[in-house]
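Data availability excerpt. The first of two example chains:
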Amino acid sequence: MTKLVGKFAALMLISVLVTSVGATPAFADWDKTRYPAIQGTIPIADGQDFAELSNITLVDAMSTAEDAVPDSKAIYGKLSVINGFLVYKVVMMDDNRGHNKVLVDAGTGEQLYVSDVVSKDSYKNKRYSDKKYDKKYDKKMKDYYKDMTPEQIAEKKKQFKEMGDAWKSISLQDRAAMIIHFMQMKMQWDTMSDEAKELKKQEMKEQWKEFLPLSPEEKKQKLEDYVKSLKN
């Protein structure tokens, strides 16, 4: 049971880490970005299962993306179908929390497209001027901070930033390993009952409380140790 909870804690961990690193805008627009008519090498028909059709790994795709955008880190990636071709869609983040996406051919590993960088400030301006913007995330964060003092809020935000920095600081290979594990755990999570999910959430929150106050170096070490445990 402890091992199982630990696995689901990793699912929650990666979700929060991605948010902490400032990637919420990138994921809000995950399937809304308009891409040019790219030409890949692996055509995919409507409804076709493409999970095992890639000729390259997530590590390969993230490496190509980082070569294409050298001032950013690849923080997430997954297989997608764009314009009828199989690609890896990789989310990139720079030190100023600007984000963009890179499309990598799943057949050859070549870069097919690099989107423009969207700055953190420009995204904030867009979301508050857009009447269709889903404000669930903002409400969730306001509820999270509502009983805290200004000093406590500042400390929490500092801890969240440290988590994002820890995520970006681990090796590309370790980031890819945790992303793949996240996807596997999410599939298992989706099959659980609502009652079982709620129990796991409470257990994970307790583990999260232990992780959050750690120093930046300890946070990074925890992530690296977890990746090592996946290989055992």
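And the second chain:
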Amino acid sequence: MALLGAGGVVLLLAMVIGAAAAVIGSPMGILFADESGDPNSIPIAEIVADTNADFGAAINDIVSAHPECSETTITYDYEDGHTWASYWPEVLAIFAVHTNLNSDSDVVVINAAQMQRIQDTFWAMHEITYEVEEVDTTPEPTEDDPDPEQQTDYILHITVSSKTVDELAELYNFTQDQKDILHQLLSEEMRPSLLALCGGIAVADGELCWPLPGHTYISCHFGEVDAFGNAGHRGTDIPAPEGTPILAAHSGTVLVSGWNDSYGNQVLLDNGAGLSTRYAHMTQTAVTAGEAVTAGQVIGYVGRRQHGQPPAF
């Protein structure tokens, strides 16, 4: 066993301090952004919540700007089936590498300028596009109108898509060394720490809240034949009296809240860790797009489906 004298202890301490300073002064410093102790530093979770709200509002603004559309579809064009709220670790990693290695600025204290860079990175990664489809239809003849005129219906198609982290790295002209650091930040060991900064917590098996306490009967399971004879049911039907409060199964950000011709009044909730849940067929919703909710919070109220069928979660 080796023994260190006083000089050795000082040397070892200096090495530890130097190593810590090297980490904090590198892109890895983003992992300590909420521990800077600077009262003016803006919490990452606050930036995430505000930006998610702005993004959700942008989608709702498109819907509001097209009142002529009788139907709206929203497609999330992401490779793994997640939604934008799940990709904040990638946004933070890109921001940290790009900011630290190109401007020599630390990424521990998040000031207003750093916040704007984070938001710019988010908007560079995600995109909202839309188109209005015109569908010409002719109503069925009736006794009062045996020769009805052709009418035009309008359908609003919204698509939310994302660049991959490698595509964004190319956009920012990352070198190979910078790409290596980027992927190190997004490794299985470090990504959970970035996720924690965002306020997202992964949900383990069995930890989801039941959305309708006291109503546990399931009239149609996911994938079964539904009440209309359609195979591959895409929801879970839980009968409950109209107006019964519906609770969020997990914490997260509201991505969509409002009317959809397929789901009626609906809420789409994302926990930021790859889990999304949709709550449909409500009499009304109780939350707005971009809002942060906690598990067990009331997000809407049970409504009716066609022919009195129960709501689907």
